[in-house]
Here is the input.
Amino acid sequence: MELDFYKLNLCGNDFILFNLLKGELPSEDTRAEVARQISRRTEGVGSNGVIFLSENTESRASVHHYNYTGTETPSFDAYLCASKFLFDYGFSRDGTISFFSGGSVITVDAIDSLTFRISSGVPHTGNEEMIGVNGSEYMYTPVSFEQIPGAGAAFFFFNKNRKEKEEIARLFNLGNDVSRRYRTVFTTVYSNDEIEIEPVFRRLEKDMIYAASVAGAASSYRSYCDNEILVNCKGGELFFQKNEITNNVYITGKPEYVFRGSYYFDESDN
Here is the structure.
């Protein structure tokens, strides 16, 4: 089975997209195995996730996202990358792109042909908490979203290297099982409308829109920033907005094509 694909990127998070809107969607087991094989960075194309686009009975697109282990899971970053392709494919209606994923309708605003906005929901921001790590104390702000499992933690300092941050994140979650681990976002505030973030997530959980949502919500809650914030990431920029009436958080980004190609999957080996 030969599948044409596009590789897309959003702020350093990369995805392989298969356009099957006019073709046949492989079985769930096949999709999972394709995702595992093509995501390998040494043997496959390399990605953090794989997107399969298909048509459904309501003439809308369906988005199936699999992480690199072959598990179907939601991903804001994947949704924005899929929206970029769907916009170019002609699925935009009155400036919005709607598709099915995981039993729900996902709606993305097309600001223009390059820029897309998605809601991560209403944040629940807790009071600052203190933790001790290797004899030092650090303040963090917990943030959770109703529609996203788990919680994030925003740490407001940036004067440590990557290894130190990874160690803080590891010790912070030591003893917690996977379902109770915080996804940590190290945040530097530059002004009331600009921050820089460095999330320390497992590759399995990498989602830059989620990280920007956590850091932006915590920055606004602690009055470090207003409700509109430019979020600098290592791989690009995102824009955080919080609606003052509904408290909904919106993240705007610019997914990009990296390249396109063709992938051969040998079904006889599986």
Summary: The chain has four helices and 17 strands. The helical segments are 28-39, 76-89, 162-172, 208-221. Residues 159 and 188 are 9 Å apart (CA to CA). The mean pLDDT is 90.
